[in-house]
Amino acid sequence: MAEHPQDPRPEYGETPAPYAWAALPPAIREALLDPTLWHESLETYAHTTNLAVALADVEGGLRGPCLNPQPTWRRLHATEAAANVGCPFALAPRRPCTCVGDALATRALVLRRDRTGLVHFTVPLVLGEYPLGVLLAGQVFDQYPEQLPLEHVAKRMGLPLYGIWQAARREQPVKRATLAVYGRLLATLGQSFLRTHYHTIMDARRLAELHRVHGELRQSEAQLRHMADTAPTMLWLTDATGACTFRSQSWQAYTGQPAATALGEGWFEAVHAEDRAAVRDTLRTAQAQHAAFHTDFRLRRGDGVYRWAMDTGHPRWAGSGAFIGYIGALIDIDDRKQAEAALHDRELHLRMAHRAAQLGSWQLDLATSTLYASSPFKAHHGVPPDWEVSYTRLFDLIHPDDRNRLRALVQQAIEARSDYAAEYRTVWPDGSLHWISARGQALEKTPSQPARLVGVTLDITPRKQAEAIQQQVHNALEQRVAERTTALHHEMAERQRLEGEAQRAQHFALLGRLAAGVSHEIRNPLGAIALHVDLLDEELHQPTPESPAVMAESLTEIKTQLGRLIELVEDYLSLVRASQIELTPQELGPLVIT
Questions:
Q1: For residue 459, which of 379, 399, 390, 388 has the smallest C-alpha distance?
Q2: Structural domain boundaries of the chain?
Q3: Residue 272: per-residue pLDDT
């Protein structure tokens, strides 16, 4: 249960030693805590401040009913009434509320907020050195209510979540400073009332004391009126006919309309012309049923600017049970209206963006592991909108090969309070496989939100299928290119072979022509050489005196013809090299003319 600093405490006299209240006669204690004596004053206070209020003894036991219980508290308290939590106003505490004992021990106002966000405060009732009991008031929000704590408490109590949240949203938060003012007002009222009745009971015959008590009571009433005039809310009263009989000074300070002019139905002049008919209908309907009401309308401020205001009224009853009119309060809610409109616009734009992009959204409460998911998110995982999603069950829908990787990414984002992005496969109940792209961001705890992980999902199955088809086409093209490249290589090799064969054929043709031309040139020197060889042979076998000269002449001719033959061969070889003709050894025998 959240605790708040105590407000400056009113004067209660000297702080007593451990409780000596038992020294006060029991009959006096019972008389001073008689709920019938307190009822009218507490009821006036409750409806004036729009707070719940109750009288309790030093043990925290209620003395009489809780007056003006607030809607949210009343819904939740229906299931908590039997629980002993140490305080009649505390709801769903982690430990018993000690505000009653703390207020009596410190003789100071004690303010508490329970797990639902509802605030109550306790003021002690002390007579001299005797603590008699406490007054409890509140059951309101001191800030705009948080949905998650209310839903947790309502769920634990088995109550409808939507009804509790809607009831809470309709309640107007009361600022801490205002609660402190109301607390001091209640302390002053309670102490004055207690002292008044104590003196009345103890010495009704002491006229001077009775006058003093009445003076204190009048002073208390003046303080109450002063508090009403200086309170941040605009307080008002009507008679049984619905005519306004009182407007606090804050009305004139806000609207610029004198309080006297606002009596009767004069205050309607400050209501926007377009809202007057609806406001009148609301008031007439409530008046006919003697029922509480609240209505929102635009109210003209002193500078002429119209701002949204919320007016709340509760019926007043005489001691005889007769209806005597309404008591109510009017507050400026223009900032809240603008915030709600801006929030509504952002939510609308976000929903439109998600719908256009076919995005699913989700949020994971890191404290409770509670997962909130939109209908598109569930559709991405193949489950219907009413499927009860949880963080554990979600991983059952993910492909087994992707679960550990996704868990690791999520855990890393939570620990580092960072974002993450992942693509994973999900297996639908019909066995089909789908691809999901997910992005998430871990967020720190804020005053209005717990630590959480939020993100979006997108079904990328069509993209993955297109990528698979594209890969298949790419592979097929790669294969066809490879096959065509191989075929080209074969074609080029065949072309080179044919070109080589053609070139060799050309070379052979050229060689043939060269051989035909050269054979004639070679045969002439060879014939001359053969002739002179024969002459040498004859001279050797049949020498004559002229033989040496003849043989010398023949040798000289042979050398000449051999030189000519060598030149012919060199010229032939040069021509072959220039024509890049591959030479192979050839038998010259057939070329020699014998």
A1: 379
A2: 2-224, 234-338, 358-459, 466-591
A3: 93
